[in-house]
Amino acid sequence: MVAAMWLVIGVLVLFSAGYLGYSRYLAQFVELDEDRETPAHKYEDGQEYVPAKKPVLLGHHYSSIAGGAPIVGPITAGVVWGWVPAILWIAIGNPLMGATHDFVSLSASLRHEGKSIGYIIGEYVGERGKNMLLWFAFLTIVLVVAVFALVVAIVFNAYPEAATASLIYIGLAVLFGVYLYQLNLSFIPGTIAFVAAMFVGVYVGTLFPVALFEPAARAPAETFVLLGSGGSWLPGAGSLGANTAAWVPVILVYGALASALPVWVLLQPRDYLSSFLLYSGVGGALLAIIVGTIGGALGIGAITPSQPLVTQLEPFYGFIGRSGAPLFPLLFITIACGTISGFHSLVSSGTTSKQLDKETDARAIGYGGMLGEGLLATVALITVALVAPEVGGGIGLALPTFASGGAIVLTSFGIPTSFGGPFMALVLVSFLLTSTDTAVRLGRYMMEEIVGTPESSVESFAADRYGNAVVQALPAYVLITSGSWLTLWQLFGSANQLLAALALLTATVWLANWSDSKQLISTGGPMVVMVTITSLALLWLALHDNIYAKFLNDAWMADAGAFAMLSAVVQIVLAFTLLYLGLSLVKIGYDNIQDARRDTGGAVATDGGQADD
What we know:
The protein has 24 helices and 2 strands. By secondary structure, the protein is an all-alpha fold. Helix 1 packs antiparallel against helix 15, helix 7 (about 125-160) crosses helix 24 and helix 15 crosses helix 17. It is globular.
């Protein structure tokens, strides 16, 4: 057993070295200039292009990227393969690959008028490459919606208190939006009042937990069950349980409606309120681990946790993990956002680049923001390591350990587990709900760019804010109902990290066209690693986990229902489609890089912008 404090200290040391050393080099490499005009100033319009102070933009960016994935991935990987390979991939991969990816995505967008990664790749390789990247990103978004809706349902089943607290939290966010934007009332008093009300909502949740059908065994006896003890007829109820299966469509409908609302109604006030959950949950947990370990060692009762903060999970369960899955390549795509995430390139180039006040702010926001997500992943891994759930319980047992393990950590501050557990569950759910409806919104933006001006009723429906939500929610629901959690999560991780590889490809193409003196190892190296890992993972998931383990398995075919079979088919089609799109884009990008390096006579923009043709 190892004290959890040493895991925190080890990660902090490596992250600090990465920020103080490697990020400084990268900032010089892309020639960030404090005096160069940023897109936020050049195109300031009061809506999208708005300069923001570095601390404010860092908080917004962090809230946008720190969804539920850096919590879910490390927990899943730690339970299957042990905490040592998981912590090593986070501690080493994050500063070398993930933070580099976020930083160069943001920097490339800065030099292209705050445009998206899809726009940038299109500038160098043409419209076909741009559309392929947009389609790839859209399919990834569908997977994001599926896995996050499922995880929220699992947590609501395990912690009905969090379901009540989440309903209160969403209601408070809407009221806060009205308070700020319609009534134009004072900001600071409103912040104090609504943040306090949010924490009161957690307490109310402990008094009035709510479930749709009979919840998990750990749920409080006083849980209000709204629809009785049935629900076996629901799609996915056999593998997920009736209560979890019932919450899934509710969450998908929420994501669809929330994505269609004006941003001031829910998105902006909710993101602001969730930042306080983020700081208190993640920062508090990290501090509590250190304080509790020291307090326990010194015998200081006031800061001694309810149990020793040491790892109960095995360090390593072998190359073939407890679920029968090989460590390579599946560990690396299971811990998706904790180490590297393509979704971040959409945020960095979609909104953050339009708000940078100074170019030099990109280092703290792009590189530093990703390190912050790595700390969240570390906290998640520690919580599961403290509780060590049995893998036989599946993800329905493993995921809620973020709440139960986090509750143990918070006892270092004298917070009872009866409050700490629901609070940490709300922290997890708030990230997931944010990611879910933000993903649906981003998916609509991508489809609008793909369609352009609609020329048919089908195109109009696909680009419509409500029609597009249906386009995303229906395949997401089909994927969820299979009950194959690990396969679904790893399909998402593969797509997300292959998207990261494509963002790194875009940055490499930009650098190659910028100047033939620019080295391409910092972006090209991680790109090659991630293309290799994700391609092998997609092949494994399609050929082994679906075709071999399902359709060529007589026992599975005898028991599988229509939804399970349809879900497996969708997963196979998605895996091969993503693989084709990804490898095609890599080939197109590689050809462009080769042409750029051979064309020594081509004109190149001196400020790192688009090369002249």
